[in-house]
Each structure stands twice: as C-alpha cells, then as structure tokens.
DNA sequence: CGTACGATTCCC
DNA sequence: GGAATCGTACGG
C-alpha cells in the first residue's frame, strides 16, 4: 500500500470548518517503534480565531497555544484534566490560530497495540475486567484515541504532518452523510455547530 | 507565587 | 454523580 500521505498544501486549501469535514474519511497513521496503528477519522471539531472555546481565541498567544499559530498541517497536542491529551490539526494561514480537534477514529491497523496502550493507563493495573476493550471503544473519544495511537505531547506537539512518523492519509472514500452539531464538553461557544461526524458510524463518540 | 480550572474518562 | 491529576493562565 502506498503511503499516500497528505501534502502540507491540503491543510491550507480550505477554511477550518471545511477542513474539519474534509478530514472525515481520512486515515490517521502513527508508525511508532512499537508498531503501526491507524484509523479512519470519523468525528472532528473546528476551533476558530473568533471563537471563545478556542485556546488561541482573540489572538491569545502563549507557550501552549504557539503551535496553533504555525502553518496548517502542524500538530497541536495539549494536556487536558491533567491526565489526557487531545490531538489537533492546525488549520488556516500561519498566524491565525485555528485548528481541528480529532474526536474519534474507526480503527484500521494495530488494534492489538491500541488495546495494550489503552490498558496501560497511568496508575492503572490491568485487570480481567479491563483486559478486553471492545474495538469500537478503542478510539471513541479524543483522549482515548490519543492514548490508543500512542500520540504524545512531548514528541508530537509542533511537528508537521508532512514529515515524521505521525501523518494523515487521503480519504479512500467520500462519507455519504456528514452531521453537524454542537461541540462536546465546552463551556462557551456552545451555540456554534462546529462538530462534524459521519452519520450512523458506530465509532463516533457519544459526547 | 498561589490557585482555579479544563476541547476527558472511568468508577462508585 | 464525582474523583483523578497537572500544566496553564491569570491575578496579586
């Protein structure tokens, strides 16, 4: 199978909300030392520069948000609730500060490795009750998919999807129906329907 | 320097 | 329903 990695030009070819929809059906890939994991992106959210829910809203440049002001196709990974991380694709022109949050994947490669990574949660000893994670739960949520894919802020934050071992493949199909609705877990900006997901796809998070 | 909190997940 | 857990943001 050809790598078919999306070029950097793909990420700047659309406005952020359009990109969030164009990413649906594309495949996120991580070629790690432990093995390859990948999954079809089935759920995303857009975060815009005039959007109160966006970390970089209103040109707020800090050490954390700096990657969001990089070129489209930059990776933005941040720590949330002290124990989980979220993976974003930086969008729009350099200096704008917008991104697309990836919220769920349909696993395609390395499900065994995904399950192992999910079991190895910090402070958690795997038990029989956690020994088997359903395939549809492996990447069902932004924190879950980051852990299953082995994505880490230390190594991937600020990298480019056009180079390195974390990248996105072009979609091999066009999603038939895309649903838009309110974003999940935010306290402001709830009036904007910037969450997008593939209709009837069982790997989409419940929110 | 102190502290409140978050684009979440899991357990009671 | 509530805890876990810590870097970040912001005020003093």
Automatic annotation (TrEMBL):
Is the keyword DNA damage in the record? yes
Could you tell me the superkingdom of the organism this chain comes from?
Bacteria
The EC number of this protein is 3.2.2.-
Supply the alphabetized keyword list. DNA damage, DNA repair, Hydrolase
Q: What class of enzyme is it?
A: hydrolase
| Matches recorded under Pfam families | Pur_DNA_glyco
Similarity annotation: Belongs to the DNA glycosylase MPG family.
* Matches recorded under HAMAP family: 3MGH
* PANTHER family the UniProt entry points to: DNA-3-METHYLADENINE GLYCOSYLASE
The record's section on NCBIfam families has: 3mg
Q: What is this protein called?
A: Putative 3-methyladenine DNA glycosylase
Q: Which organism is it from?
A: Dyadobacter beijingensis
